[in-house]
Amino acid sequence: MASAFDDSEFVDRDVQTAQAVRHVSSAAVAGTGLVTRPPTRAELEARATEAQKRLAELKRAQEEVERERARLEEARRRRAEFETGRAEMLQALTRGVGLLEEATFRARRDAEQMGRTLAEFQDALTKLQAINENQWTQEGWEQELTRALTTIENARMEWNSARLKWPLLDGKAPGDGQASASAATSPWPGGQSLGELAKLGLALTWPVATVLLVGVIALVIVLLRG
After folding, report:
1. Alpha carbon distance 184, 179 (integer Å)
2. What CA–CA distance (Å, rounded) separates 164 from 173?
3. What confidence tens digit (pLDDT) does each residue in 7-46 have?
4. Burial bucket for residue 85 (CB in 10 Å: 0-12, 13-18, 19+)
């Protein structure tokens, strides 16, 4: 029985498809004018120049970013300095205002008290200067003397009272009165504190203690040798 053979059965369809794709690709490349050859020296130099330009642009951009970062760092530092300085000065000035207000109040109070003391001194001085024993009479000199002694005693009381309040009347600085007061209230002789007395006692007794210690050491050495 004879059979008929078709020539198409012996054709590799995959090979034909691949050849057709390569043919179309070659035609497309030829149609678009694309070049598959290696780049020339001029092309490489142009590419290198372009890369160098891009590198320079990136470097300039990096420098600009670095400058911006430095500017921001400086701004951050100054901002922190501003906040810290403001808080510090607010605290210091608030404390200073309070201290000066208190000192001003004390000074004003002291000035008022000193003004009153000055007025009392002037009044007492006027009364003392008004005493004139040459005008005393034979009949009333005892009364005048009693009146004069009373004036002098009142002036002395004013003077002694003012000396307690104003150390400058005795030629002392304002702080000397406080030091004298603390010395007067000290329970130890001479106004020294307990620590000062202990230092004084140590200074007086350490030579004796040194001699005793040397004697004990010498005795121990003799006993050990024996």
Report:
1. 9
2. 13
3. 455 445 555 555 554 554 454 444 444 557 888 888 888 8
4. exposed
Instruction: Give me the phi and psi of 51, to 5 degrees please.
Output: -65, -40
Given pLDDT bands bounded at 50, 70 and 90, which one contains residue 140?
confident
Q: Look up residue 3 and give its amino acid.
A: S
Alpha-carbon separation of residue 21 from 33, 35, 37 (angstroms)? 18, 19, 21
Q: What are the structure tokens assigned to 54, written together?
A: 């891009």
d(CA 60, CA 54): 10
Cα–Cα distance between 189 and 183 in angstroms, integer? 9
Q: What is the pLDDT of residues 76-124, one digit of tens each?
A: 999 999 999 999 999 999 999 999 999 999 999 999 999 999 999 999 9
Give pTM, 2 decimals.
0.43
Report CA-CA distances (Å) from 40 to 36, 43, 45, 46.
Answer: 12, 5, 9, 10
- Enter the tokens of residue 200: 């004084």
CA 160, CA 180: separation in Å to the nearest integer? 16
- Give the three-state DSSP class for 71: helix
